[in-house]
Structures are given as structure tokens and as C-alpha cells.
Amino acid sequence: MKSLLEAQKISKSFPGVKALSDVSIHLAAGSIHALLGENGAGKSTLIKIITGIHRPDSGELLLDGKPFHFNGPREAIAAGIGVVHQERNLIPRFSIGENILLDRLGGSLLKPIDYDSVYQEAKHWLDLLELDLDPRTQVSQLSVAKMQLVEIAKALSLQSRVLLLDEPTASLTSHETVALFSLLKKLRNDGVSILFVSHKLEEVQEICDTVTVLRDGRNACDSQPMTNLGRQDLVRLMIGRNEQIPNADLRDHSTAEPVLELFEVATELGHANINLTLRKGEILGIYGLVGAGRTELAKSIIGRYRVTQGDVLVNGQKARINSVADAIDTYSIGYVSEDRKQEGLILIHSVLDNASIPIWKRLAARFGILTDKDVTAAISPLVNMLEVRTPSLQQLVGLLSGGNQQKISLIKWLAANVHILIVDEPSVGIDIKTKAYIHELLRKLSDEGTSVLLITSDLPEMVALADRILAMDQYRVKGEIVNSRNYDEMSEKIMGYIHSSKG
Amino acid sequence: MNARILRYLQSDWAGPFLIIAIGGGAIALLKPTFLSAFNIQVLLLAISVNAVIALSQMIIIGIGQMNLSVGAIGGLAAISFAGMMQVWELPPLIAAILALLIGFGGGLANGFIIARTGISAFVITLASLSIFKGINLGITKAQPFYHIPDSVKAFGNTVMFDPIPWLVLPMVVTVLLVFYLLTRQRVGRYILAVGGNLHAAELSGISVKSTIMWAHAISGILAAMAGIMLVARLQLGQPSIGDDWLILSFAAPVIGGAVLAGGHVSVAGTVLGVVIVAIITQALVLFEIDPFLVQVVLGGLILWAVGINRLREVRFQKSLKRI
Q1: How far is A498 from chain B (nearest CA, A)?
Q2: Residue among A85, A99, A270 minimizing CB distance to B322
């Protein structure tokens, strides 16, 4: 079949990480094409390259057989490529209708915008998705799922020839998903080429005709017909490196003393009835989809957001953690952020300064003043132990690779010698070798008595590392599973808990 | 019925409106001269010019930036207006149009540099403030232009009918145009869209750069407008026009409910914010309180308004996070 949109041998590097290398994909008119891969495999990067948000380092993009390159989303839209990104992109204080038709509001200097016709047209697209919403409603009043549907309606309203959907069903109910799928099938019959990114393999197998799988920024397969591939084949293509994440031994901590306990905790962010027990030397995993409230829970535990109800116990004693400083200084809890560039590190400061921030207070308190010598003495052994590749301790962290940056984020808390370490998405945007190293390190730390709360969307990573796994969804803990290190069994159980509430 | 009252109370202008009603009432009770025709005329003169100044800043707040050069652009337009009438003997209307063009050009230059370089508007307008003010002083040698045509003087100092001064007319027209711009014109909606979520606006196919340029150009025109009105009111082209606009230009939109992060401003609220500032200034004069207190009260008012808006914004963000 002839391709409508083609990407040939696309490569793209970001500072410190190679996001895509020689990735190809062929989208045919009148077909739904699945794009699969684990988190960090490069799916979103590929979409952003096609729509002109990123520029490829090498490789070629072809539309109707002709090479093209967009200088931004405007040109992509003009060329008939509509996209729903993974993150929500709406103007919160604008109405649904205005958001859908934002770039086509009409009107001129003397002719005001005709809102009646804007709302009328918006209504048409909402109806197609069987969405019973008033287009005059302000977007800020919608739930996340409804916002996602409004964005899909917005992409549809462009009547594009190519429609790129990055995890469109992540927060939808099954009813909403069914309505979306029947519409996608109709669009396919009208000749639209649809690229569909999803983690839910059942969905992918249900509606997709062809599939491309990315793994660590490379093609694991390029535009294969779906009919030849079973669920197991897809999983193998996506993960494909069972041997590279060696499973840890099964450990049982049920008799170890609890170090962190949450009883019926509710937070100002909307968590409710959260119960969990983290025992000494244990790795407790929290798994959930984007928006499940995992990071938010971690930040509530460390005092960034307020716990409004319930009890938090540290080492069996009732704890009042009112600020992040409390968490670190009084209760010895460290948090490695999922967003190391924004929250984890100060990119324009040196390795030494970044790694030592949590211990400044301790070092300065002892001597009254802080000297480079003391700080270096504390940090240098750790930098050597973790094999951080940096020319010197004075090197700016922003110039290190993603993997080495992540090591610095961990060193911060190793230096502070925390008893409880909360690690949020530890292997996003880092290379496989460092990922394996960090896994090993976390296991070693826990063996030595540090208790680890592990948040990750990477299921193989979760299964390889955690001793127990909590499944979280919609700011609630849905269930607890003792990890058997059996990927299929764990995956089924976790997804069972997560989807149990959605009807 | 109750729901409707509640909705009015939650709107941006309800708070300022209540303050004006209660505060104005209280002052009138204590000092009946507050409501004299002369006093109202003085109030309206101040409000007319200040409202246009505030709208000039409000547009930039709407896009999520700041314009420190509002006063410098207004001042440059003002002395140009006066100078063109005195030195070149241009008719007032032509001089006014050229002065507005100077404001447009100054604003556009701000917007162009901000959009092109991506440097924060705060820094760029801080630099351009100095440049515009320097040009102003270079032209005037710090001396005012005195020869203002009688028609212009009359426009700034006589009443249409008691106690409504002529200056109210350009203010009302400007307010209506800005309202129309922000609610019914594409450019206005884009300004608020970019202020509300720059990333989303860009991904929707809006040209963020040209929207920023437009916002600053419009802000420049409004600043020039205020400058021209002030020349008419003062009856001379004073080089110091615009020097004291900055605080007011932020205070009024913020009192009127503008979100400093951008994306939400209220034209009605801003005008009421100007009215509040005018009444307070007036009241301090009537009660013979030391004028330095005006500054203190104005500063306090900004802190209070920013605090209220912050509270509202936190609540709004929380409602966005709700599942």
C-alpha cells in the first residue's frame, strides 16, 4: 500500500540522551496505525518531529511522497495533520467551543467574531463524539477525561488527512472509548490516516490495522500488519530485553518493622483513604497511569502539599511533616523527582553544589561556615562510587548526560543518608546501562536497610524491582499485590485493580 | 434570582463596585462637598486619563507580561503631540493621529524585540523606557511646549454638560473599543489565549509572536492616547508626563481582578479600579491628609488586591486539578 505520510531513518538527540535513532514509519491512507513502546521509547518525540515541534537531526519526512519539514504546529495544521498530544493543551478560561475552533474564530476588524456560529460548529464535533456538553461551558469546569475528548473534537474539527493521537484513551471510560473507536473507524473508511498511541494492547488489537513498535528509540518493527501479530508478540517487541533487567530475588519483609505508615490519609489535592505500610529495607512500588495521583501522593508525604485527614507514622511515631525541610531534617525522607530538570536539579549549578544541597545545613551547623573542602569530602566518594562521568565536580549539571544527572539526583539523598527514599520515575530519559545500574543501586540500598518507595509507569521496571506493588487510580489505592516477578501475572493483576472502578 | 445575584457577586467588578458604593457613600455623608458638581468634574477628569493608562497596561497583563514603558511611550507621544502643534503648527487632529502612530511604533518595537529574542518583557521594556524617555528629553531639553491651541485646551478643561467633561468622551470610546477587542476580535481573543496557556495557543496554530507584537502595539496606542488627553488637560506639553503612571497602571487592572500570570483581565473591573484610586486620592485631599499617604495607601491597595487575586487563582488551579 502507498504511504500517505512517511518517516525515513529519523534520528534525534537531546542533550545527554539519544531519543530516536534511524526510526522509520509508514502511514497509509484509510488505516489506523498503532505506535507502541514503553515509556521513553520515543513515541511522543516522533510525533513532535512529524508536527514540526522538534527538528530531526537526520532523516526525511515525506507527505504524498514529497519531502516536507514544518517550522511549527501552524504549518502542520495547514498541511492537514491534526494531533492530540499526551499533555492537555487547552486554554482553561475559554469556552469549549472557542477552544475547539481557536485558530478559526473568523471575524475581521469590522466584523465581530460570530460566537453563535462558533458554538454551532463546535456542537457538531461534540455530537460526533456523542459528547453531551454545552460548547459555551468554560473548559476549566471539565474533568480530565472530558478535556481529553474536547481535544479530540478539536483535532477532528480540522478535518485532517492525518490524525495523530497520543494516548487518547488514557483517561476515558469504556463508554467514551467505544464512541471514539466507532468514530475512528468511520474516519478510516473516509480515507483518513490515523496514528494511534496507546498502552492498552487490547484496544490496539481491536482497532489498528498496522503497527510500529519502538524500543529505546529504535524500530522494533516498522509498519507491520496487525493480523500477523498476537498479544505476546507485541509484548516481546515492546520489552524485548527480559534478560537485561535481571529480576531481583524474592524478598519477604512482612516481619520487618514499618518505617512509614499511612492510615486513611486524605490530602488537599484530593487523595482519600490512602493506606500503606513501607517496611525497613523494602521496595514498595506504586503503579498507576498518568494522572493517578502517585507523584502528588509522594509530594504530600514529604510535606509539599497538606495532609488533611488521617495519620502519617514514621518509625511507628505519629509524624507532623509540615514542609519538605521537615521531611528531610526531622524524618530523614528524601524525594527524587520525576522531573529532574525542573524540580530535581539546578542545571546551571555545579555537580558539587547540586549534590550537597541537602547536607549544607548539617555541614554548616557543625563548623558554622560551609567550606568547599568539607563538601567535597562528603560528595566526592559518592561521585566515584556511582561512577558519574563528569570531568570535575565543578562541571555544570546541565552539561551532563541524562543518566549522569539522575545519578547526581540520587547522590543528593545518599549524601544526606536518608532512611526513606522516594524515587519517582527513576529511569525516564536515561540510557539502558545507567538504568540497569540504578536498579542495582536501589536494590543494594534496600538490602542495606534503606526503605524505598518506588513510583514508575514502567511496568517491567516495577516487576523487576518492587517487593510489593500498590495499584493506584484516581487518587485512591485500588489494591496491593505481592510481587512474584512474573510479568504477565503482575500486569494482569495490576490492570485488573486499576480498571475495576471504570465502567 | 438568587443564583443570578450570586453570579454578579462572583464577577470581577462586584468587589470594586461594592467598595465604591460603600466608600463613596461614607465619604459623601461625612463631606457633602464630595458630591458637588465641581468635585465630580475633577474626579471624572482624573478617571478619564487614568482609565486609558490602566487599559494600556491591562492588555499586556492579559498576555502575561509587563510593560514598564507605558509612561515613557505616553510621555513621548504627549510631547510629540504638543511639539508638532507648536513647532510645525499642525492642526490638532493631524498631530494627534501622528502621536498615536508614535505610540503604535514604540509599542510595536517593544513587541518585536520581545517576540524575536524571547527575552522577558520586563527587561526589554525597562530598557525601552530609558530610550523613550531619553528621546523625550532630547527633543524637549526638559522644557515644556507651551503653545497649545485653544481648541485642545478647551477640550481638556470644559464640560459637555455639567458635570461631565469632554475628556470623558475619548475615555468611553476607548473603553468600549478595548472591550470589543478582547471579547469580539480575533486579536483580542488570541492575546488572552496566549496569556492563558502559551503552549496550547501555539499548538492550536496561533502565531504567538505576532500576537505578542499586536498586544504591545495596542498597548502603545493606548499609552499615546492617554498622553494626548493629558496634554489637553494640563494645557501644555510637559516632558514629565508619564513619569508617575507605572504604579497606577498596575494597581487598577489588579484591583479589577486581572491575573498577573495572564489570560484573564476585566475591562469593567479595571475602570472601577481607576475609580477607586481616584476616590481615595480625592478623599485624602478632602480630609486634608498629607498627600504622601496617597502613595502608601495605593501600595497597600495593590498588595491587598494581589492577595485577593492570588487566593482566587489558587482556588481556580485547584478546580483544574479536580478529577
Answers
A1: 15
A2: A270
